[in-house]
Amino acid sequence: MFSPHGPSLRELAVQALSSVERGYDLLAPKFDHTPFRTPDTVLDTVQGALRNMGPFDHGLDLCCGTGAGMDVLRTVCRRSVTGLDFSAGMLAVGREGVRSDGPSRVAWVRGDARALPFGRVFDLVVSFGAFGHFLPGELPGLFAQVHSVLRPGGRFVFPIGAPPRPSSPWYWALLGFDTAMRVRNALWRPPFVMYYRAFRFGDVRRELTRAGFTVEHQALPDFGRRPDGSPRCRLIVATRGSGTPRI
């Protein structure tokens, strides 16, 4: 799962015993060589869907990491693209790796997604693979923050995968990982919040609606369907209305 250029087991252990911010600062130089980076298949599929919705003027990649989603935004946003992350190390790698030429201005901002340092300026907000770093109780505030930086009619778009069935090895792998993280956080400080099973479709849809979004979703056909016919991956499209979020 890790390339030869990825982190060693010792490096991963040091990162896992750090805070989330410090852990990602340490991981940043090798992050793109780990399975934690959003796969190109996901990025390409979301990019195609956004092209059908756009174009947009100003886009924000929430919790942008090293910038995989920034390249997606550059293809659908005509005026500006902004990446926000709280890890200075991840932002530094992103600045070096993402092209800044083209019609869209590119900016990198260090900040907390739970307290966004922007006004109502964006037409599009995307996020890839970052929601496991937020506890369920933080979702109302997080979604209210996104709502506050979108113009009326702006969209908050992100993919969400279906949880694996108990018959799948991935179910037990993710359960084991989340259990290990909970034990780690019970015994060690500072905590490292990274839970793969806490971000559930029903909860997400409910909290987005409470935050003032109109929520739609569509199957991403490239990832197929489960035996019961439900999609393996959906694209959430939450559109900002003109009202005030309810938190």
TrEMBL record:
Protein keywords: Methyltransferase, Transferase
Biological process per Gene Ontology, one example term: methylation
Pfam families: Methyltransf_25
EC number: 2.1.-.-
Signal peptide positions on this chain: none
Enzyme class, UniProt record, top EC level: transferase
Domain annotation Methyltransferase: ranges: 60-154
GO molecular function, one term: methyltransferase activity
Annotated protein name in UniProt: Class I SAM-dependent methyltransferase
Organism: Streptomyces yaanensis
Top-level taxonomy: Bacteria, Bacillati, Actinomycetota, Actinomycetes, Kitasatosporales
